[in-house]
Amino acid sequence: MTVTSDAKPLRLAITGMSCAGCVAAVETALSGVAGVAKAQVNFAERTAQVMGDVAAATLIDAVRAAGYEAAELRDTHAEAEEREAAEQAHYRRLVRNTLIAGLLAAPLMIAEMAGWLPALTAPNGPRFWIATGLLTLAAMVYSGGHFFIGAWRQFRHHTANMDTLIALGTGAAWLYSMLVTLFPASVPSLARHAYFEAAVTIIALINLGSALESRARGKASAAIQRLLGLQPKTARVVEGDLERDVPIESIGIAMLIRVRPGEKIPVDGEITSGQSLVDEAMLTGEALPVTKREGDPVTGGTVNQTGTFVFRARRVGSDTVLAQIIASVRQAQSSKPPIARLADRVAAIFVPSVLIIAVLTALVWFNFGPEPRLSYMLVTTLTVLIIACPCALGLATPISIMVGVGKAAEYGILIRDGAALQRAGQLTTVVLDKTGTVTIGRPTVTAIVAAPGFEETEIFRLAAGLEAGSEHPLARAILDAAGERGLTLSPVAQFQAITGQGAVGQVENRTLMVGNRRLLAERSIDTTPLHTEAERWAAQGQTPVFVAVDGALAGLIMVADPPKPDAAAAIARLRALGLRLVLLTGDHAATAHAIAAQVGIDEVFAEVSPTDKAKLIVDLQADGAVVGMVGDGINDAPALAQADVGFAMGTGTDIAIESAGITVVRGSLHGIADAVAISRATLSNIRQNLVGAFLYNILGIPLAAGALYPATGLLLNPMLAGAAMALSSFTVVSNANRLRSFHPRGTPT
Ligand code: ADP
Ligand code: MG
């Protein structure tokens, strides 16, 4: 199987992004570079993906100019480990920041509450408070320095982000407290209070929140880690009588590689000797191991079980199926569904809006507030700056998409982008192509009926001669049957395929027509003598293929293509998801109805030509249905493209990921039910996150500004605001992580 995709995107690691507003800034900076076709920032992973013809250095300069840092990612093993180590170091740094700030904050708070702290006017008051202020400053520089540096960098680029809010809030609290300490006379006596403990507590809490979030985010990106981990680091190359272990990067095409029991297969290839059972579950979600013999393809990242074999490498590096699955998952993880649009628009203007609200709050309290006005003004403004959290808003969608897309990959489902994911969750109707989708797709001949004056072997020889020119699965069945009978075929002349009907041509100087009833009827050949026979077989789900020789009906070949063994169970699941199911086929009506009955579908559209398949989807959509179309991706391309979500089944050799919104790597219809269930779960997770983040800010900011004060006298403590803010984004990430334990089949597998 091959996953086709555009040129490889450039990937950058971005540092300095603290909130969703930064995502927009970095994306705009990248998109503005000449030659960039598309730039996407994955906020959850702190990476950017850029498509287009452009040098990494140019992009890095553009990111720097916007106030952030960037480095190119090449995704070798060493680099993945380096990034992992950097992430760990960052986490430890956040924990250290929390501890240092907390070490000062905790005793200060306890002493404050116990009333142990000296008043500013007490004999040793000034000395105590100056010392406390200096200690606080030291803790703020050590544990919160990054907020101030970030805010400064933003300021120099005439922008603002979350760092700005935190730096302004805690900075103002410290400056005011220092002012009160050094020049108590400069503020009214009632307002003489220091807020050092608030500043340092907020710094501690926000660091704690980031540490928790970083941990949870690490879990959320586990799917990519898992896929990356499937690739072994070395492979055992066979050269004549010698065998040696080489790093996977230096494997070339056509090299021979030995795989021993229990080992992971390093790259894609074809077995040249030996045989074994291979577990492909991690790539396809298919639980049963597959037998592989000489000549069979093997896929990098799957696990050899008991046997030993040697295979020839066919695809290496970024061409392997695993590499392309990883690329496709990454791409999908950083794309956003339409549902994210509102949150993104709000996030983009969030920080400036909060700054304006903070200024308004200050003005209102200063002009209309009770005494001590300065204290009230400071506390409310500080609380507004601290409680506002664009992170929760910005993380709400991408973090769930990241987990959802990863979850899907675990089940062998590749989702092209956020839009496909959202649509799949909203489907009302699923249209299934019959051949190769509901059925196994490897038809075999079961019977033949000759018309008077014709002989069975003659019909076979002539029909197979014609079908040698056809690509249709039915043609292959007839050719195989002729082969089994040991017939020698004559070449076909003037071969012509009639789409959706069959084929015509000249064999042994006789005019041959092989196909459905319509093919013959439209060429005025009477098919009635064999109708009863045809209907009898069709009622059992077999396809009657009519054969005409020199304008006369010659016989009927019966071809059976039974449903996949798990089709009925998968269709029952789709029905349980509340979906309307439709079987769509170019095949004989009675055959289609019989197959539909066997698998439990009650709506059938049969004898539909390929062009009419797309029209049928349009009709369903006109009636208000949101339609998913499941097909093989090649024959049914127009219908797949017309559907709201096209599902391609990867049964065959090639999965054309570009033509379908969702690709099911293994050829089972269970994949469709899994995809719909995962999409729905992801969508409702996103909704919970968005509602939570919006509500948090919509309620939190007015509360912090003191909206309840006039009526109830209630004001929010700035430290409580710090705790709420620290928890808000952590809550969003944790909620998304709940998706990781979602089981599309209802029970743990
Ligand atoms: P499906 O929807 O089952 O994939 P197609 O559009 O490929 O159907 O074909 C529709 C019908 O046309 C088939 O069921 C078969 O009866 C007939 N047909 C098409 N091509 C051939 C062929 N090469 N040989 C015999 N019958 C054919
Ligand atoms: Mg077909």
Automatic annotation (TrEMBL):
<keyword id="KW-0186">Copper</keyword>
<dbReference type="Pfam" id="PF00403">
    <property type="entry name" value="HMA"/>
</dbReference>
<keyword id="KW-0547">Nucleotide-binding</keyword>
<keyword id="KW-1133">Transmembrane helix</keyword>
<dbReference type="InterPro" id="IPR018303">
    <property type="entry name" value="ATPase_P-typ_P_site"/>
</dbReference>
<keyword id="KW-0479">Metal-binding</keyword>
<keyword id="KW-0460">Magnesium</keyword>
<keyword id="KW-0187">Copper transport</keyword>
<dbReference type="InterPro" id="IPR036412">
    <property type="entry name" value="HAD-like_sf"/>
</dbReference>
<feature type="transmembrane region" description="Helical">
    <location>
        <begin position="129"/>
        <end position="152"/>
    </location>
</feature>
<dbReference type="InterPro" id="IPR027256">
    <property type="entry name" value="P-typ_ATPase_IB"/>
</dbReference>
<keyword id="KW-0597">Phosphoprotein</keyword>
<dbReference type="GO" id="GO:0005886">
    <property type="term" value="C:plasma membrane"/>
</dbReference>
<feature type="transmembrane region" description="Helical">
    <location>
        <begin position="374"/>
        <end position="397"/>
    </location>
</feature>
<dbReference type="GO" id="GO:0016887">
    <property type="term" value="F:ATP hydrolysis activity"/>
</dbReference>
<keyword id="KW-0406">Ion transport</keyword>
<comment type="similarity">
    <text>Belongs to the cation transport ATPase (P-type) (TC 3.A.3) family. Type IB subfamily.</text>
</comment>
<dbReference type="GO" id="GO:0005507">
    <property type="term" value="F:copper ion binding"/>
</dbReference>
<feature type="transmembrane region" description="Helical">
    <location>
        <begin position="98"/>
        <end position="117"/>
    </location>
</feature>
<dbReference type="Pfam" id="PF00122">
    <property type="entry name" value="E1-E2_ATPase"/>
</dbReference>
<dbReference type="GO" id="GO:0060003">
    <property type="term" value="P:copper ion export"/>
</dbReference>
<feature type="transmembrane region" description="Helical">
    <location>
        <begin position="690"/>
        <end position="709"/>
    </location>
</feature>
<dbReference type="InterPro" id="IPR001757">
    <property type="entry name" value="P_typ_ATPase"/>
</dbReference>
<keyword id="KW-0677">Repeat</keyword>
<dbReference type="InterPro" id="IPR036163">
    <property type="entry name" value="HMA_dom_sf"/>
</dbReference>
<feature type="transmembrane region" description="Helical">
    <location>
        <begin position="193"/>
        <end position="212"/>
    </location>
</feature>
<keyword id="KW-0472">Membrane</keyword>
<protein>
    <recommendedName>
        <fullName>Copper-exporting P-type ATPase</fullName>
        <ecNumber>7.2.2.8</ecNumber>
    </recommendedName>
</protein>
<keyword id="KW-0812">Transmembrane</keyword>
<dbReference type="GO" id="GO:0140581">
    <property type="term" value="F:P-type monovalent copper transporter activity"/>
</dbReference>
<feature type="domain" description="HMA">
    <location>
        <begin position="8"/>
        <end position="71"/>
    </location>
</feature>
<dbReference type="Pfam" id="PF00702">
    <property type="entry name" value="Hydrolase"/>
</dbReference>
<keyword id="KW-0813">Transport</keyword>
<dbReference type="InterPro" id="IPR008250">
    <property type="entry name" value="ATPase_P-typ_transduc_dom_A_sf"/>
</dbReference>
<dbReference type="GO" id="GO:0055070">
    <property type="term" value="P:copper ion homeostasis"/>
</dbReference>
<keyword id="KW-1278">Translocase</keyword>
<dbReference type="InterPro" id="IPR006121">
    <property type="entry name" value="HMA_dom"/>
</dbReference>
<dbReference type="InterPro" id="IPR059000">
    <property type="entry name" value="ATPase_P-type_domA"/>
</dbReference>
<feature type="transmembrane region" description="Helical">
    <location>
        <begin position="346"/>
        <end position="368"/>
    </location>
</feature>
<dbReference type="GO" id="GO:0043682">
    <property type="term" value="F:P-type divalent copper transporter activity"/>
</dbReference>
<keyword id="KW-1003">Cell membrane</keyword>
<dbReference type="InterPro" id="IPR023214">
    <property type="entry name" value="HAD_sf"/>
</dbReference>
